[in-house]
Amino acid sequence: MTPTSITGEPGQQLRLPLDCKRHIVLVRPEIHWNTGNIGRTCIGTGATLHLIKPLGFSLDSPFLKRAGLDYWQHVDLHVWDDFESFLRHTAPQKEEILLFSKNGTTPYWQMPTRKRLFLVFGSETKGLPESILNAYQTAVYFIPITDKIRSLNLSSAAGIVLYETLRTYWVSQKL
């Protein structure tokens, strides 16, 4: 599906072309509201949501489902026991994995443009484990913020990055 115009007319809701694939990967998420919000964003963009255990909440939580509104049952959701299981079953190429950390070395707007990407975020309080950061040292990105806050909300960060990867991909395809 291709939009007729990237800009659209005032009041017109554009439909996203879904010829690329995005995966949001949350490693050890702790807050159900964030995961629910990210799930809803995944539905809106056609992205898949991967949760790496342990989770700081139950997937049956009414709060999780409330954050995802009545869309939660439509989330393309996969839950993995650990990051290694996720890697074995999804088989991403190393260049398809992008990590996000407040301690990243490259701004998010310098992410590569690819048809398929796995956008990996850590838990709200601990971030990504060192073992994952060390395995993908050249693919750790950050979203610039002022020194007035420690970090952005996880669901805000995921939304910023996800839409930027879609925007740059579509621009590269001249849609």
Features:
single chain, 175 residues, alpha/beta, Alpha/beta knot, 7 strands
Protein architecture, described:
This protein is an alpha/beta fold and 175 residues long. The protein has a single domain (21-172), classed as Alpha/beta knot (3-Layer(aba) Sandwich), CATH 3.40.1280. The chain contains five helices and seven strands. The protein has a seven-stranded parallel beta sheet. Helix 1 (32-45) runs parallel beside helix 5 (154-172). It is globular, with a radius of gyration of 16 Å. The chain starts with 20 loop residues before the first strand and ends with a helix.
Give the termini distance in whole angstroms.
Answer: 10 Å
Q: In CATH, what is the homologous superfamily?
A: SPOUT methyltransferase, trefoil knot domain
Order of helices and strands: EHEHEHEEEHEH
Our count of domains comes out at: 1
Radius of gyration from the CA trace?
16 Å
* Number of beta strands: 7
Which percent range describes the beta-strand content?
15-25%
| Biggest beta sheet summary | 7 strands, parallel
Q: Which residues form runs of ≥5 with pLDDT under 50? A: 1-6
Strand order of the biggest β-sheet: 3-2-1-6-4-7-5
CATH topology, anyone?
Answer: Alpha/beta knot
In short:
The protein has a single domain, classed as SPOUT methyltransferase, trefoil knot domain (Alpha/beta knot, 3-Layer(aba) Sandwich).
Task: Indicate the topology.
Elements: E1 21-27, H1 32-45, E2 48-52, H2 62-67, E3 77-80, H3 83-90, E4 97-100, E5 106-107, E6 116-121, H4 130-135, E7 140-142, H5 154-172
